Amino acid sequence: MAELVKVGMADYKVGCAPASLISYGLGSCVGIALFDPVAKIGGLSHIMLPDSSSAKSVENPAKFADSAIPLMVADIIRLGGIRTRIWAKIAGGAQMFAFANTMEIMRIGDRNTEAVLSILAQLNIPLRGRDTGGNYGRTVELNLEKGIFRIKTIAKGEKEL
Amino acid sequence: MSEDILHLSAMQLDALREVGNIGAGNAATALSQIINHKIDMTVPRVAILPLGEVPDVVGGAETMVAGVYLKVYGLAPGSILFLLPYSSAFSLVDMLMGRQQGETKILSAIDESALMEIGNILAGSYLNALSHFTQLTLLPSIPALSVDMAGALLSVMLIQLGQVGDHALVIETEFSTETNDVKGHFFLIPDPGSLGTILTAIGVRS
């Protein structure tokens, strides 16, 4: 059976076929799958926050969209991926609790998604699929053999990007 | 210091455990009166955990739970989350609505509102006890409910902590009825700046 590598919150992992990378229970966090389909090398990142420059602690760059994505790209290239072949699929960025007066922190899912899209655009990485927003949690799994990004939810079933 | 929670003394941790004990004791009494069942309560766990490991406390990030979330306002702001395994949420609703055990299979809008009210009452009694003990005014926000994966619900609290550090100070108590039909976890997670305020208020600031 192919290896299933778990990616925790505020972490990222890279690997190659036939392994799969999985991250459980994303809420407002965003899961970013990057994949070189020819080399079958990719990575999965589980970011919590949009921007490391406004944070008080940056000990863990994998926590932020702006610092995690470039690091993951570099690691994919180190494993033998080619920069120009890498595409992205993303999921997450939900708002789990609805409050009447939506505090800024409650919009964090949207802000995470916006930050991820803007970093991908800056790095010229094409977006091949997204499943973001809503008010439900997601488990995401990147299959490094086929490049399928599977999204499992409790309320909305499963889908593949 | 962003990560001063990593340098708490044994005495400070004990004092925080007592904070959790007083709050949760009061909340357990309230719950017991509402559902007219005896409630057992564990000694609160005070843990300093890497953010990613917090969901393991309730059985992993993908565990399906019902969660009532409230912000704590006042001199020591923070968050409260009351998490119930999905089956416990149904049992609790059965008790609250006077149904046969096992009757509730899906949560209606009224059931959801009943769960939110329970969260409200528990948080209110928890904070009330805490206010008396610490002499700090602490007030709960209106509750919000979500039924989903534990990791997704907890991430709402963890993201706020993530802005200043990589660890969470979690004061967690587990409740259960004698028959184990209803089990739940009650989390108090102080905002990063609140820890010093609480420690000063209970006289164990180093």
Overview of the molecule:
The complex is a heterodimer of chains A (161) and B (206). Chain A has a single domain, classed as 60s Ribosomal Protein L30, Chain: A. Chain A is 18% helix and 34% strand. Chain A is built from 2 helices and 10 strands. In chain A, the strands form 2 sheets. A 5-stranded mixed sheet of chain A has the order 1-3-8-9-10, with no helix packed on it. Chain A has a 5-stranded mixed sheet with strand order 2-5-4-6-7, with helices on one face. Chain B is α+β, with helices and mostly antiparallel strands and 206 residues long. Chain B has a single domain, classed as Chemotaxis protein chec (3-Layer(aba) Sandwich), CATH 3.40.1550. In chain B, helix 1 packs across helix 3. At the A-B interface, strand 3 of A face strand 3, strand 6 and helix 4 of B.
Short recap of the structure:
The complex is a heterodimer of chains A (161) and B (206). Helix content of chain A is 18%, strand content 34%. With 161 residues, chain A is of the alpha+beta class.
Layout of helices and strands, plus pairs?
The complex is a heterodimer of chains A (161) and B (206).
Chain A lengths: L3 E3 L4 E6 L3 E7 L3 E7 L4 E7 L17 H14 L8 E6 L15 H15 L4 E6 L5 E6 L5 E4 L5 E3 L1
Chain B lengths: L9 H26 L3 E3 L3 E6 L13 E11 L3 E8 H11 L12 H26 L3 E3 L3 E6 H13 L4 E11 L5 E8 L3 H8 L5
Antiparallel strand pairs in B: 1-7, 2-7, 3-4, 3-5, 3-6, 4-8, 7-8
Helix pairs in contact in B: 1-3
